[in-house]
């Protein structure tokens, strides 16, 4: 192998290592920006609408703290007394002239969006905190990562592929909620992302517009939450894979560093974040159109962890055939039992058959046989009778 090929491979590995670290830091900063924008432009308005509180009121937001519920219904706390107190306060509230009394009704669908969106924002906050600590670890151990994690072609490609998926998923969050786009085409590693002509571009942030009835806007809002859920899941899964590759490469080379326990802690924290994933909305008819890059990231949404059975009113042909077979078996059982019922007449349903009648069991009990004791008694009696007869003949 020539020196030029060796140098080109080493340069490509170093480029992937530098690009991975570059896009990982950009993923963390973009995730923080979009998390704040989604919270301000979408979560706060829906909380203000459903709680009848002013926007920016942190107390109203705390009343709807669903961050610890996750997707497990067994973790739901009993807060009925708290709800009664809030309803009583809302009833006795005095409205001032500065704020107009709201006239839009509140639907259960809108309340469900608060839970899902707030949980997803909380998941992004936790992932961003873990990324920040991981960036500090990268900065302190950059030489170790370049020596082991990015020293081999396969590992470096896999790590970059998953960091790229993290970065693209975060950028897609801006497209889902129509926020300001991330201008990554002008960066020095843009060629590694393979840009195309249909990339998402936007210069300002959109905001949730609440109208009445709720069905006029909530369908699109539910679709956005579903897409946001898929992207948050992609970020968490790819983040865990990146840590697994780095951790395994360091251990395989038997290079002892003090931060091994920290990497294992990161993996446990990411697993805890994934446990918070809320359920997705089912049967959403409104589909939104995105760029090719974002659409490819939304093809495989994560399934719900807890699924309740849905009763289907339509009966399939196979189930009908099975039910007919069961009915036929029951009928045949009834016919055979009729033979037992008409056992005294030795015919079925009072109609004699042409077959030769074989003895079949009936409800009438069989005559009992003599026991051994009764047989011995009868033998002794017969012997005594025979002896008495002999004596009478002798006398004569």
Automatic annotation (TrEMBL):
Annotated region described as Disordered, given as residue ranges: 318-396
Protein name (record): Uncharacterized protein
Biased composition (Basic and acidic residues): 318-331, 344-357
Taxonomic superkingdom: Eukaryota
Basic residues bias: start-end ranges: 376-396
């Amino acid at each position: 192998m020539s020196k030029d090929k060796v140098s080109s491979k080493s340069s490509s590995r170093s480029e992937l290592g530098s690009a991975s670290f570059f896009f990982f830091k950009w993923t963390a900063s973009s995730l923080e920006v979009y998390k704040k924008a989604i919270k301000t432009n979408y979560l706060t308005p829906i909380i203000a609408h459903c709680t009848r509180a002013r926007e920016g009121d942190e107390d109203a937001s705390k009343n709807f703290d669903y961050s610890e519920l996750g997707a497990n219904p067994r973790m739901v706390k009993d807060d009925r007394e708290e709800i009664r107190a809030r309803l009583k306060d809302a009833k006795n509230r005095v409205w001032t002239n500065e704020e107009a009394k709201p006239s839009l009704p509140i639907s259960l669908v809108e309340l469900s969006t608060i839970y899902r969106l707030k949980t997803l924002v909380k998941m992004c906050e936790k992932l961003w905190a873990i990324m920040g600590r991981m960036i500090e670890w990268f900065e302190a151990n950059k030489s170790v990562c370049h020596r082991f994690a990015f020293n081999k072609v396969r590992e470096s490609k896999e790590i970059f592929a998953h960091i790229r998926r993290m970065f693209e998923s975060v950028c897609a969050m801006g497209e889902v909620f129509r926020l300001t786009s991330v201008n990554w085409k002008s960066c020095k590693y843009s060629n590694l992302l393979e840009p195309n002509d249909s990339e998402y571009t936007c210069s300002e942030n959109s905001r949730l517009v609440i109208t009445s009835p709720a069905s006029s806007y909530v369908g699109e809002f539910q679709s956005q939450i579903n897409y946001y859920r898929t992207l948050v899941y992609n970020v968490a899964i790819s983040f865990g894979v990146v840590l697994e590759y780095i951790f395994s490469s360091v251990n395989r080379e038997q290079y002892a560093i003090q931060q091994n326990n920290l990497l294992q802690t990161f993996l446990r924290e990411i697993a805890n974040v994934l446990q918070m994933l809320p359920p997705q909305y089912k049967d959403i008819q409104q589909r939104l159109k995105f760029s090719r890059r974002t659409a490819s990231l939304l093809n495989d949404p994560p399934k719900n962890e807890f699924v309740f059975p849905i009763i289907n009113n339509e009966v399939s042909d196979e189930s009908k055939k099975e039910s007919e077979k069961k009915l036929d078996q029951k009928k045949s059982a009834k016919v055979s039992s009729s033979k037992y019922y008409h056992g005294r007449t030795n015919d079925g349903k009072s109609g004699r058959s042409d077959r030769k009648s074989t003895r079949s069991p009936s409800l009438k009990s069989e005559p009992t046989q003599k026991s051994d004791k009764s047989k011995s008694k009868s033998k002794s009696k017969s012997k005594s009778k025979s002896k008495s007869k002999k004596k009478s003949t002798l006398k004569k």
